[in-house]
Amino acid sequence: MMLNIGFEIDADELVTGRTCVIAQSGAGKSYAIGVILEELLKKNIAFCIVDPEGEYKSLKEKFSILWIGGEEADVKLEETNISDLALKSVKENIPIVFDLSETLDENVKVKELFESLYQTSSKLKIPYLLLIEEVDKYAPQSSKNMVSGLLEIAKRGRKRGLGLLIASQRPAFVNKNLLSQCGSQFIGKLTIRNDIDAVRFFFEDRKNLLKLPDLDRGRFFAMGDVTKNKTLLVKIKKRVTRHVGYTPKIGERSSPKIEEVKKNVGRAGVELKDEGALKVRLSKEELVKIVEKKRKRRFKLFGKKVEEMGVIKLVYEPLVRVGLRLIKRSLTGKRKFEDVVLVLDGLTGCFVHGDDRVCGVKNLLGLTSIQIRVMLEFGKSKKDLSVNDLVDKTELNENVIRDVLKQLRSRRLVTVTGKKGRANHYSPLNKFKVPKIKSLKQGFESETKKMKGEKVLPKIKEEDVRELIKGFTPDSEVMSYQVVYKPFYTVSLNGKKKRVVKVDASKN
Predict the structure, then answer these.
(1) Which residues of 454-492 are buried (b: 16+ CB within 10 A; e: fewer)?
(2) What's the longest Cα–Cα distance across the chain?
(3) How far from 470 is each of 26, 192, 196, 216, CA to CA, in Å?
(4) Domains assigned to the chain
(5) pLDDT of 145-160, one tens digit each?
(6) At what angle do helices 398-410 and 387-394 cross, to 10 degrees?
(7) Per-residue pLDDT tens for 42-75?
(8) How many CB atoms lie within 10 A of CB 426?
(9) pTM for this one?
């Protein structure tokens, strides 16, 4: 199987062996699996991929494959006899995408699939590959919480022709007994220390292990049985079908007809990024009353007012509404989702919470998510921090922390405060409070698309906001990003000195 020019792996070993594909979010793990699946389909080799996020249905664009899943799938999962499905897939060589993205009882369905495939393979002994994305969901560290049948496949499936490929972006969360069964490995970029430690035993050369935080997207160390025990640093080739699991970026999307998109947008799809505005609710009469109270008198408590009301303007200032899905894990390893809406001031980057502004983190805009994670630890701490302190708090690799500190010092955000023992200690040049994402829940909907006043364009960039959110919550996902304009009246007051009063026009 060719995964790139000059990089070929043993297909028999892949299909009947035990393989892991590991890389952190955004490093190309799902893309690499997509390439592997395409190569299997080109060779007419059947498989079943357990797909928790619905990322692999796009294989149908070029290949004949059965999609089991929700309402739009070839066959609805709820109506599927999984035992019969396993038998037909193995016996009749039918590749399957087992899409769980719309299923509530996914562990029940997965358990039935694992047990059915094991029983079928025990009878037929036909080479067949089971692939499992986000395997830490079904095989957390505690063996008690592992989905029944999975460890049995890992230990005894090979003699029955049943191969296994598991994938995860957090190897530290994966059951160690399962991970140790993998004789072949594709390991990409990892920056969290616990994750690097979890794959340490795969690497004979420690120098290669230390390179993991610096790997480019799509580059993997390929090792073990599929490479005949050689360690190769490889770049995965391009897919021929669309990659559904990519992280959206500016410039990667076309502009389809909005009405058509509205018809087809899914339950968990990204919302449209159309701009809108809040309605003007404050009348001119109410505005005058408010400004009247703000005009200065000759004396504080009485006397003639010495400021004259001048020009009144209606100005629309940008707010950024970010729809965020927080991913949390229970003690059993099961993932839970919480949807949160954050609002940022489009001019300053401050978090908006009612009438309040939380501005401590606005200076973090423009940093990478890893730089932001380090800065947030400084914000939370009441004392200076060493490299080891930051490694413990962020779980990032020591070399990554040292590089980040150099970058932050060059940007005059962090300084060395002195040594304690042999270790340098660092602190931020400007102290700031770190808001909790949960405490900033706030939602609003745009109410109109007509603006009758002056429109002020945002100064903050979408890519910077995404990095900020990722720095706060590495496991979260940005579901929507929308600019909504909020109306304000600006009123000039002319006295000894000219000043401008700003009044929220979206409130009565």
Answers:
(1) eeeebebebebbbbbbbbbbbebbbbebbbbbbbbbbbe
(2) 99
(3) 11, 14, 20, 18
(4) 2-235 (3.40.50.300)
(5) 788 899 999 999 999 9
(6) 110
(7) 999 999 999 998 999 999 989 999 999 988 899 9
(8) 21
(9) 0.57
